[in-house]
C-alpha cells in the first residue's frame, strides 16, 4: 500500500529543508518503516513551484493520504495564509485526509513572529495536530513523521 504525504505551505517556509532533514535520516534507521508496518510505503512529496493558492494540482490533493501544512514562525504572512491553505485543502482533499500543522524554523526564536500558543490555537480551531519543528536542527522532525505514519496506519 502506498501512502502519499504531501508538504504544503508558502514558499520559503522550509518544506524542502524538512524533507531533506527527514530523508538524510537524523532519525533512528528503520524506526519509520517499523511505525508504518510491513506492506506500507509512505512517499513524501514536495510541492516546489506550487506555493500559491490555486497552484497545487488538484490531483495532488485528491491522491494525498496526509498533508503536512507548514508556516514559518518568523513570518506572519505565512501563518496568516494557513487559513487559505486549509480552505483549499478542505475543498479538494479527501475528507479523511490526515492533516498536521507545523510551525517550522523553531530554532529562530529571536526572530519569532508567531507565538507557539497562536499556532496551537489555530490547530485546535481546525482540529488538527500541531508541532513546532526545525528543519535546521531536526527538532521534532522524526516525531512529526512518526505521528503521521501512526495516524495513516490507524486509518488505513
Ligand atoms: P520551501 O520554499 O518551503 O521549500 O523552503 P526551503 O526549504 O527552500 O527553505 C527556505 C529557506 O529557509 C532556506 O534558506 C532554508 O535554509 C531556510 N530554512 C528552512 N527550514 C529552516 C529551519 O527550520 N530553520 C532555519 N533557521 N532555517 C530554515
Ligand atoms: Mg522548496
Automatic annotation (TrEMBL):
Which GO-annotated molecular functions does the record name?
GTP binding; GTPase activity
The answer to whether UniProt assigns keyword Lipoprotein to this entry is yes
What are the entry keywords?
GTP-binding, Lipoprotein, Nucleotide-binding
The similarity annotation says:
Belongs to the small GTPase superfamily. Rab family.
Record protein name field? RAB37, member RAS oncogene family
Organism, scientific name = Mola mola (Ocean sunfish)
